[in-house]
Specification:
This protein is of the alpha+beta class. The chain has one domain: Gamma-glutamyl cyclotransferase-like (Hypothetical upf0131 protein ytfp), CATH 3.10.490.10. Helix content is about 20%, strand content about 50%. It has 2 helices and 7 strands. Strands 1-5-2 form a 3-stranded antiparallel β-sheet. The two termini are about 25 Å apart.
């Protein structure tokens, strides 16, 4: 099993049903030393606005999100969902949990 920290669209129950065919249960957590940056991604019907986690020079910057425990199969589904606009990296959350996040590619 893998830990996934979500700070954006993957927290949506509708998106979870689309990606995993189920709703995930998670725990609130924080990612320290990162900040959110606006990102435009070209989609089927034009450009869409999203956010992406990027490392910050200010260690007091915090991203609030949810950590989920998911299977390797589900993690592979997230890789497809996030596309090549993001890359997956491992981080340590405020709770001490090591988790995957998607950051700027």
């Amino acid at each position: 099993m893998e830990k996934l920290f979500s700070y954006g669209t993957l927290r949506s129950k509708q998106i979870q049903m689309q990606v995993f065919n189920k709703v995930l249960t998670g725990t609130a957590d924080q990612l320290l030393g990162y900040k959110l940056k606006s990102l435009q991604i070209e989609e089927e019907f034009g450009m869409a606005d999203y956010v992406v986690a990027v490392p910050s020079d200010d260690l007091s910057d915090i991203i609030y999100g949810v950590v989920y425990t998911i299977s390797n199969t589900d993690l592979a589904k997230v890789d497809i969902f996030e596309s090549n606009s993001y890359k997956r990296v491992q981080v340590r959350l405020k709770s001490g949990i090591q988790a995957w996040i998607y950051t700027e590619n």
